[in-house]
Structure formats: structure tokens, C-alpha cells
Amino acid sequence: MPRSPEQNRAIREKRIQQILEAAVSVYRERGYHGAEMGAIARRAGLGRGLIYYYFKDKRDVFISLIRLTLQRWKDVVGEITRSEGSVTERLGRILKQTCALSLEHPDYSYFHQTISRDIKVLFPDREAEVNALYEESMWKPIRSLLREGVEKGELAVDPELGERFIFSVLFGAVNHENMIDKEKLDQWVTLALYGLVKNRNTDT
Question: Which residues form the HTH tetR-type domain (predicted)?
Fold first, then answer.
């Protein structure tokens, strides 16, 4: 009996996930240039030809990995930004959740921290596309929340400066060489937001 469209879709999604998980694992060990398609196929337990059935080339694999993981992060952040609570509370939840995800998925955190520095070199003809993914999924939600805080009079900071501050603090906390301990997340969030809060209300 032939498979239904739903079954084919499920198989496709499972194999794509399999390939992307293998790709991020090989990348962590060998870097981008060492993550050859054959190595990714072996790690995924699939034939090399099957990888090319789903992806045009290695760049397509890694741009797809960037797109998928950023979308997941955007979904998490979007749920928080649309939730009830002050801007400060929502910023705190975003910071804490992002760090928790980085601790839970260190390979993905390492991947974004390192590959984002080399977008221009690795994807010269798709640089604008990849940068747009980071802009839409990472920068824009935080920027919008900061502007909301300033407009409501809750945050006493220029939105652009606040954005740079938030991401500097965040990237420092999830640095793959010295990630913040899970037990210290609450204390870190309070410290990170202290200079942003107009009335020093540090409840998060």
C-alpha cells in the first residue's frame, strides 16, 4: 500500500531533522570546512545521495540549520513578548529562557556563536538572506520590546543602546567557553536588568 501524503511529509521532516542534527554535531567537531557532506551522511546514518535529495549542497544544509533553529528561538521569544507582564518581566524571561536553551543545547549555541561571525565569508552570495534571518528572528523582537518599554516610560535607555547592552550581556552569558551556571540564572537576570529599570523594580 502506498504511503499517504501525511506519512511522506512525516518521513521527510524526520530525515531533514536527522540530517540537521548530524550537521551541527559534525560542525562542533570539525568546523564548517571540515563538515563534509559524506561526514554528515555517516553521522546521520543515511546515504550520501539521500542528503542531496533534501539539500542542494553543504551551504544549503547549514543555511537550513540556521533558519530552523532561529525560527524555534523566534517562537519562544514571540510567545514571551505576547504574554502578560511588564516589559522588564518579559525581557527577564527572554534572557533566562535563552540561556536555559543554550545550556540544554550547547551544540546549537556553539554553532550560532561561531558561524554568525563568518557569514560574509561562508555565504557570500547569500549573505543578505542569512543576515535577514538573524535580523528577523533575533534582533527585531528584542528591539521592538525595548521600544515598547521606552514608550511606556518603563525603561530609561535609548533603544539602540539598550539593544546593544542586552545582546552583549546575553552573548557573554552563553559564551561556549564559559557558559553561566544554571543555578545563577536568576541572579544574572536581575543583574543584567538593573541598569535598564527606571525604578529599580527587579522582580522578574
Answer: 13-73
